[in-house]
Specification:
With 364 residues, the protein is α+β, with helices and mostly antiparallel strands. It has eleven helices and 16 strands. The strands form four sheets. Strands 5, 6, 7, 8, 9 and 10 form a six-stranded mixed sheet that branches. The chain has a four-stranded antiparallel sheet with strand order 3-2-1-4, sandwiched between helices. A hairpin with a 3-residue loop joins β5 and β6. α4 crosses α11.
Length: 364
């Protein structure tokens, strides 16, 4: 199952396909009791997708058989034992993809000539992805992180390692010879190479970067390269050969502290915008401003969801299952704002009580 959404991947997903491009969305659950119904719900929504393919006169027999086969193959790739909060399956003639999302999605089947990407975009923004670079004298490991986990990344050839005769970096660190390791020219060159590789990663996938390692390693990386200068340093050694859980437990307090500071900055910006009368609050007002491209900063509570329908002039509350109900209007707004260059920030639940869970700073 896919997790990482890069700009190149998103562009590829959005390109037009031969009809039908099928998007299947269903909520999933990480734990009991909700996850007990996930297999049944998944089978039912896939059955609905096949039913729509069967009844659509615009779908030829050959294409129907192709796409149904892609849906069946996608089903074999779903791992509900490691489900998150949402699942998206894309299928079109000759291709399929399965995406696991940390943000919930409405149950839906869409047949079109493009895939439905708004829920992926919103989930990716909500995850606040980041990088962790764990540095030692003989190994540099890259980790990709999100709101509740890290996993090792193999982007740009990571992990990087080197072998030297009679060289035991961990032993030298244990006996207190760390400074001499990091004065070694071979170590300097090794960390330059790591810096170059990380620069490429950040260029292609820009995210906040956290760097872990002994203080001497952090200092040398800062001296010989560029990436550490803009990163948050965490002086904690041993993680270049560590486990994802060990890395997560080390960086989590720092991540949480940074998230708290970011939420405070967003609140300050919203207060200032309200004073300048450049402020929008509530789903209807924010939606209209987003469509006009007026939002510079969008703030959304992490679990904010609302179901509405469009009465022509405004969005009005609706119930799930109502005719023309839009259950993922928040995700629509997030995608629209990102496409018009807005900065989108997800903040803890309760932060935007005064704005009904969603607010924006306007450009004009």
């Amino acid at each position: 199952m896919e997790h990482a959404l890069s700009p190149a991947t998103l562009a590829e997903l959005r390109r037009p396909r031969a009809y039908p491009a099928v998007s299947v969305l269903t909520p999933t659950h990480r734990r009991e009791p909700g996850n007990a119904q996930d297999p049944v719900r998944l089978r039912n929504v896939l059955a609905e997708a096949k039913k729509q393919l069967e009844s659509d006169p615009a779908v030829t027999r050959d294409r129907r058989a192709d796409v149904v086969g892609q849906l069946d193959r996608a089903l074999t790739e779903v791992d509900l034992a490691h489900a998150e909060n949402g699942l998206v399956i894309f299928a079109a003639p000759g291709e399929h993809q399965v995406w696991s999302l940390a943000r919930t999605v409405p149950e839906r089947v869409v047949l079109s000539d493009t895939f439905l990407t708004r829920n992926l975009v919103s989930a990716h923004a909500a995850e606040r992805p980041f990088w962790v670079l764990s540095v030692s004298a003989d190994r540099v490991t890259l980790w990709t992180g999100a709101v509740d986990r890290v996993a090792e990344s193999h982007a740009e050839g990571f992990p990087l390692s080197r072998n030297r005769e009679n060289f035991d970096a961990e032993r030298q660190e244990r006996i207190g010879d760390v400074p001499s390791i990091f004065r070694d020219e071979g170590t300097r060159q090794f960390l330059r190479e790591a810096d170059t590789a990380m620069t490429v990663v950040l260029r292609e996938h820009p995210r906040p970067l956290y760097v872990t390692g002994e203080q001497a390693a952090l200092s040398l990386l800062d001296e010989v390269g560029a990436v550490a200068k803009e990163a948050v340093h965490i002086p904690h050694g041993g993680l270049a050969n560590g486990t994802p859980e060990a890395v997560w437990q080390t960086v989590r307090p720092v991540i949480d502290a940074e998230a708290g500071k970011a939420a405070d900055r967003v609140a300050e910006e919203l207060d200032a915008a309200r004073g300048r009368k450049e402020f929008a609050a509530g789903v209807d007002e924010v939606w209209r401003s987003a469509r006009e491209g007026r939002i510079r900063l969008l703030a959304v509570e992490e679990n904010h969801r609302v179901t509405v329908r469009d009465d022509g002039d405004h969005l009005v509350p609706a119930e799930t299952g109502d005719l023309d109900a839009r259950e993922d209007i928040v995700d629509e707004i997030v995608e629209q704002c990102l496409e018009t260059g807005a900065d989108v920030r997800f903040v803890p639940d309760g932060t935007l009580d005064h704005a009904d869970g969603i607010a924006g700073v306007l450009r004009y």
